[in-house]
Amino acid sequence: QVQFVESGGGLVQPGGSLRLSCAASESIDTFPAMGWYRQAPEKQRRLIAGITRGGSTSYVDSVRGRFTISRDNAKNTVYLQMNSLKPEDTAGYYCTALTANGRPREDLWGQGTQVTVSS
Questions:
Q1: Model pLDDT, residue 102
Q2: Does the CA dihedral 86-108-22-36 come out positive or negative?
């Protein structure tokens, strides 16, 4: 089955930027949508951005206007451009496919990439 590999995380100062990548082992057009999730220590994993097969995007309020999700179907890759980063953005970031009703494909989680925002 498809595998997702996240990359691009790291340590960044408040106000800085990072670009995360989620590379799929096969076509992401197979899925109705793709999503980026994040999980802080002792918190639940939550959806923060989604993009449909047609390119429509959605964001949670806490990242809207700072983060941008995009996809490159030719490269089977989904991106998350993160600007104006805040310490509260510190978390593990994960991508997965979404079902038609917006649920995460929990059987397809990657290993994630850690983002730490600190001075």
A1: 87
A2: negative
CA separation for the pair 40, 26 (Å, rounded)? 29
Residue 21 backbone dihedrals phi, psi, to 5 degrees? -125, 145
Please say whether the beta carbons of 43 and 59 come within 8 A: no
Percent of the chain with pLDDT over 90: 94
State the Cα–Cα distance between residues 6 and 21, nearest whole angstrom: 6
CA proximity to 86, closest of 54, 113, 62: 62
Residue owning tokens 């799929």: 24
CA-based angle 62:78:104, to the nearest 5? 65
Q: Give 76-102 pLDDT, tens digit per residue.
A: 999 999 999 999 999 999 999 999 898
Amino acid in the structure at residue 67: F
Q: At 28, phi and psi to the nearest 5?
A: -80, -10
Sheet holding 67-72, edge to edge: 4-7, 18-24, 77-82, 67-72
